[in-house]
Every structure is written in C-alpha cells, then in structure tokens.
Amino acid sequence: MSGFGLDNLPYGVFSRGGDAHCVGVRFEDSVVEVSRDPTLNALLAQGPGAWAEARGRGRERIESGDAELVPLAEVELHLPFEVADYVDFYSSLEHATNMGRLFRPDSDPLLPNWRRLPVGYHGRAGTVVVSGTPVRRPHGQRKADDFGPSQRLDIELELGFVVGVPSRLGEPVPAERFRDHVFGVVLVNDWSARDIQAWEYQPLGPFLGKSFATSIGAWVTPLEALDAYLVPAPPQDPPVLPYLDTERTNFDLELEVELNGEVVSRTSSRHLYWTMAQQLAHATVNGASIRTGDLMATGTISGPEQGSEGSLIELWQNTRFLEDGDEVVLRGRAGTVALGDVRGRIKI
Fold first, then answer.
1. Which CATH number fits domain 86-347: 3.40.800.20, 3.40.50.970, 3.90.850.10, 3.90.1150.10?
2. Is 197 in contact with 190 (CB distance < 8 Å)?
3. What positions carry a catalytic annotation?
4. Which tens digit of pLDDT belongs to each residue from 266-279?
5. pLDDT tens-place string over residues 66-96
6. Cα(165)–Cα(294) distance, rounded to whole angstroms?
7. CA proximity to 98, closest of 90, 207, 296
8. Which of 91, 54, 152, 104 is nearest to 281 (CA)?
9. pTM above 0.85, yes or no
10. Domain limits, CATH 3.90.850.10, in the chain
C-alpha cells in the first residue's frame, strides 16, 4: 500500500519541463494540478472551510476520472510553501532525558523549566529546503581558536506543522483554536552541527549549529487526513498552567530513520510530551503573531526503547556522526496515510 491514496491527498508544488511551478495533489505515484499558484500559501491563508472544500473537489475529480494524472517521474518537486518563520521545539521527554544524561550525568537530566513549558527557539526560515536538496557540511567555530568543518554532523527526526490562517499581533492563540489556524504536517530533518552548537549555545541557545539547513518533505498532509490516528498524549506531571491545560492528543505516526539504505531507528510521534496545540499556544502566549507559512517543528522525537532514538548523538552515544556522502531518509506513516519522505545527502 503506497500511503498516498484517497485517504491522504497531500499538497505540494511541482513543475514539468520548463513550465512554471503549480500546486498539485499527490495521488499514488502521480500528481494532479489544482492551481497555477507558485506556492501553497494562497490556499493556506483561506482557512478550514476552503481547505475542506478543496480537498473534497480533489477527491471527486480523481474518483470520477476527471483529472490528469501526471507521473511523478516526469516532474520536479519544489518547496511546497514559502516559509514565513521557523520555530523548533524540544517536546520529546525521551529525547530531552537522553541528552541530559549525556551532558549532565551527575544531575537531573531535565532542567527545571522543561516540564513547565515547551522549550523552543526561533530558527532560520531562509534555509528550510525541500527533500532531496544536498546538505553542505557547515564550517564554524568548534572551540576556542578552532575553526573548520563540523566533525559531529547529526540529524533530528521531527514532525512539523504548517500555519495557514495568521493571527493578530498581541492576541494569543489558545490551544483549543489550533485547528482554526493549522493546515497540515510535514516531516522535518533539522540538521545539527553538534560541535559548533556546543561551543556557541551558551547563553543564548542554538544559532549557527542549526541554521545551515532544515529539510522538509515535499508534500504537506492535511490534518483531516490524520484525524483517524489521534491518540491520547502521555500524562503531564506536574500540572501545567491554564493556558497549556487542554485536551491533549498526538498523531500516532510510525517514524523511521534510514542511513545509507539501512533503517537505524524506529519511533512514534505518539510519545510527544508537549503536543502541537500546546506548542502553538506557548509560541503565542506573549502576543506574538503567527503568519501564513509559519513552520513549527516538534524537536527530535525519540521513544523509550533502544533503537527508537531520533538523533545519532543519542543512538550512538556521542561516538559517531555523519560522514561525507552519507544519505539520510526520514519516513512517517499512520495506517493508510504516509507522509512525504525527507531525503538528504551530505556533500563537502
């Protein structure tokens, strides 16, 4: 089963030959043109009613045979939406615990704020790239008087949500209104230069160790396609503040990391401690506005068992990292619905 049947119908942007970019819907191994817009942003801004209507029209065209199916082999896929802002969270309890044990073995692996709020940072929208884009090994300061290519280049297996309807500056978006603003999800690989990050991040957090490339899938899966795979999120202790206290669900997506043709990790997004709705609520509680095309990612998703780590630093205990020429593929699936793969190869 391909995972791209009528239950899914994700949106992307493609071109054929020298033609202009068009918005299309993927069906099996083909794409159906739905508009001549160069990005998804116009559709994203229209809101849930328009999203449901467009999805219904696409399904009807395909079922009736009134749609030209263009083979994926004949098209080039592009970044599906113009990224307005990029935020990366730190929402996996297992990942945060694993990292804390690596770097603070003699103390509590979680810092005091971690269970109180979804920790995050603002990334760089301009270096978000579509799956298949080669990733150049970044150069930077690795420690005092030591400049050169990163020797500890890593991946981060993440799930991202794409904002459609913007909000007004000064008006927080409650967790209960998540579906009023968010269109769909993509897989995300937030490539990380661990040595550059370790030297630079105190006191202000990630910067050059993260900003060189973030890869996303070429297909944005509407939330509606994943509704059948919602499950209760893990319990939270201690109780959270009222603006984060909401009905909590996660998508039960089975995720995997493939390195050079071998699957090295399998996990699930059902484990996330901080949900996407909580992430959005926290990102806007100070009155920060969201914009059409905002990308917000969960941070690395790891599971509780060995072999379910979402980064190589966890999987290999800080001993091995990516080499030039390595290719990483992230995959995600829930039942009959697959997410667009995220593929990237390291080049010098």
1. 3.90.850.10
2. no
3. 95
4. 999 999 999 999 99
5. 999 999 999 999 999 999 999 999 999 999 9
6. 10
7. 90
8. 91
9. yes
10. 86-347
